[in-house]
Design brief:
single chain; alpha/beta; Rossmann fold; seven-stranded parallel β-sheet; four-stranded mixed β-sheet; 15 strands
Length: 353
């Protein structure tokens, strides 16, 4: 039997991970932990949407759900001591940049303290699971804006057409990160320190924009999902900045395939920048224009001030993942966005229409 722990298991990535491992073989036993706090604390994802994710997972006998908070150190210490987990996927946390600016202590508690609680519990246990940490491109902060960038009609571009994006070696210091980016970067450092001091195997995934059905995005996080749902509800969209900001998109099944390959090849003690890469990048304006095209409707939107430390363009250089794992994304933004639109239209009750 393979024992798997997933934190944030009711969320978008966590629930997909749980479903993936549960459906792969009945020999996988999956424990998911979630405090279901995204609605009453972070206000970007309703509890009903999370409960619907859990309803999907209830169809699998080899998944158990525990509603607890990772800030409860005694709970997590006892859970890890009493179980021999082969893999831990740490996908929980506070994900809103604006929330972190207004509530830096809360951001610290849910991101950094929760991570240290897990690491300390691992240190004290007799097990040595592989520890996956889902980090963020926000660890690079505003330094990305210092690159040679030009402004097109609908998007920002790297002036050098051969530049493939931000690699794992891109500097993370001497820049503004926001409290969210800081808590994610500090978590990375603690994971590496515990790994080398206490012999813990880890993988850190610095993710760009992961998207797909069941994503409960809001203004602060999950912008593709947020804009699609706003559009289908006929609600106006607020764009912070000029709408030319660019991100590379990675469809959720492509992320799962990447994780599968890291397990097959037993990759440990590595950091990967994970996204769709240079060929799967899109701006906010381009997304809206594409939705107008496929839905045959005009989408109202307005502009507000830029968010603090927002990156004008972030594209993951996924060369390392391609070379080490022979992996590359299969789902293009056009295909993935169409899949999302169709799913939301077919699951209006799930998406709170």
């Amino acid at each position: 039997m393979t024992e798997i722990l997933i934190t944030g298991g009711a969320g978008f990535i966590g629930s997909y991970l749980a479903e993936y491992f549960a459906s792969k073989t009945k020999a996988n036993n999956i424990t998911i932990i979630d405090n279901l706090a995204r609605d009453n604390i972070f206000h970007h994802c309703s509890e009903k949407e999370l409960e619907n994710n859990l309803t999907v997972l209830k169809g699998y006998a080899n998944i158990r759900f525990i509603r607890k908070d990772l800030r409860d150190y005694e709970f997590i210490k006892n859970l890890i001591r009493k179980n021999t987990f082969d893999y831990i996927f740490h996908a929980s946390g506070q994900t809103g940049v604006n929330f972190s600016i207004k509530n830096p202590i809360m951001d610290f508690e849910h991101n950094l303290r929760a991570t240290i609680n897990l690491l300390e519990a691992l240190k004290l246990s007799n097990s040595n699971p592989k520890f996956f940490y889902f980090s963020s491109n926000k660890v690079f902060g505003r330094s990305v804006n210092e690159l040679d960038i030009t402004q097109g009609e609908t998007r920002y571009l790297f002036r050098d057409p051969t530049f493939q994006g931000i690699s794992e070696s891109f500097p993370v210091i001497n820049t503004q990160h926001t409290p969210y980016g800081t808590s994610k970067l500090c978590s990375e450092l603690y994971i590496q320190e515990y790994a080398y001091t206490y012999d813990i195997d880890y993988l850190i995934l610095r993710m760009s924009c992961i998207y797909g059905p069941r994503q409960c995005g809001g203004e602060a996080q999950g912008w593709v999902s947020h804009i699609i749902k706003k559009t289908l509800r006929n609600e106006p969209i607020i764009i912070f900045g000029n709408g030319k900001q660019v991100r590379d998109l990675l469809y959720i099944t492509d992320l799962l395939k990447f994780i599968e390959l890291t397990l097959e090849k037993d990759v440990v003690k590595e950091i990967f920048n994970i996204g769709g890469g240079i060929n799967n990048a899109i701006s906010i304006i381009k997304l809206i224009k594409f939705l107008e095209q496929i839905l045959d409707k005009n989408i109202p939107y307005s502009f507000e001030n830029w968010r603090i430390a927002d990156q004008k363009i972030y594209i993951s250089d996924i060369s390392k993942a391609k070379e080490m794992l022979k992996w590359k994304p299969k789902i293009s933004p056009k295909l993935g966005i169409n899949k999302m639109v169709n799913w939301y239209q077919d699951n209006k009750n799930y998406s709170l229409f």
